[in-house]
Amino acid sequence: MLSPKTIEIVKSTAPVLEVKGTEITRYFYEKMFERHPELLNIFNHANQKKGRQQTALANTVYAAAKHIDQLELLLPAVKQIAHKHRSLGIKPEHYPIVGEHLLLAIKEVLGDAATDEIINAWGEAYGVIAKVFIEIEEGMYAEAEAEENGWRGFKEFKVIKKVKESSKITSFYFQPTDGGGVPTYLPGQYISIRLSIPGEENLHNRQYSLSTAPGKDYFRISVKKEDDNQPEGKVSTYLHDHVELGDVIEISAPAGDFTLDIAEPSNVTLISGGVGITPLFAMLEGIAEANPSRKVTFIHGSKNEEVLAFHEQVEKCIEKLENGESYLYLDKETTAPCYHKGYMAAENLAPIVDKDSQFYICGPAPFMTNVIKSLMKIGIKEEQIHYEFFGPAMKLEVAEAVEV
Description:
Keywords: Detoxification, Dioxygenase, FAD, Flavoprotein, Heme, Iron, Metal-binding, NAD, NADP, Oxidoreductase, Oxygen transport, Transport. This protein is α/β, with parallel strands linked by helices.
């Protein structure tokens, strides 16, 4: 337990961390990788280059300072981060390294304002927070290992099938090289793949949603090729252009808390944009196979029919449902038939959404922000809305909605 004095000191730093947080975390990662380059084999290089990881950590540090006396409020966020850590292979021995460099960064950026009293208080607080993470993550490692066909860390899988779903999205099917089966998982969960790319000094890790319902003898991910010089394009382009049948890739056990209980009777609305369809299609397929009486509304937005993936599979699932509906949004310039040409907005969502359902949303951050704002405008409550980020969890800037 932290002393009242330590809590007081840490909470007093919240205002400056709100302002200086990203500067601190930028310095933190720079120095940590400089001194421990082996950690580059774990962290997502693209998220580092785009500043996502720095911003996400800054938000976490600020939240920890603000709620240091009520850490239970942070538990949902801690569990979400712990899922990602477990999927990437973060270990207890990594935490002292992180703590050392976080305190170093606070001292460097805040200068004389970071007194010994503040640094000592943060050192004590970090120790408590790290202990929470380590214990939760160990529980997740143990749970993954105890599953039938489960394992801890990474395991070798071979590519058994490669299917082009659209001009941009390709699916990869994996089975364990040891001939064993795959563990079950919850629709919406993801796996990490770890690649060694020729000519690259470090390993590359990426987390991809499982894009099919559980209960099969393989894993499937569906990857959008980001070949427009974006940092994340390195791995997706390598997968599309170089990974073929029989190739071996290291994979971690399924993780993630953006999940749907297939057996639940409650109505559900699934809304996706682009490649954000991958976890939501797993949910839809799972319901169609195991709970076809459930009411499901599936809404998807795509730039055009050329990049549209899983459209036929979605319709087959809808046909299996006793009360299922699907709606497609396409760009204004396309000629293919669809429910609406243009963006999802309150006025065109209102006639088709089931206001009594739970909403699951996945896609690019601007897409999700727009959809959530639109849903709130038509009266959907915040507690009905669940969403998933690709990459580090970032805060969506969703303003208070007003009635249309």
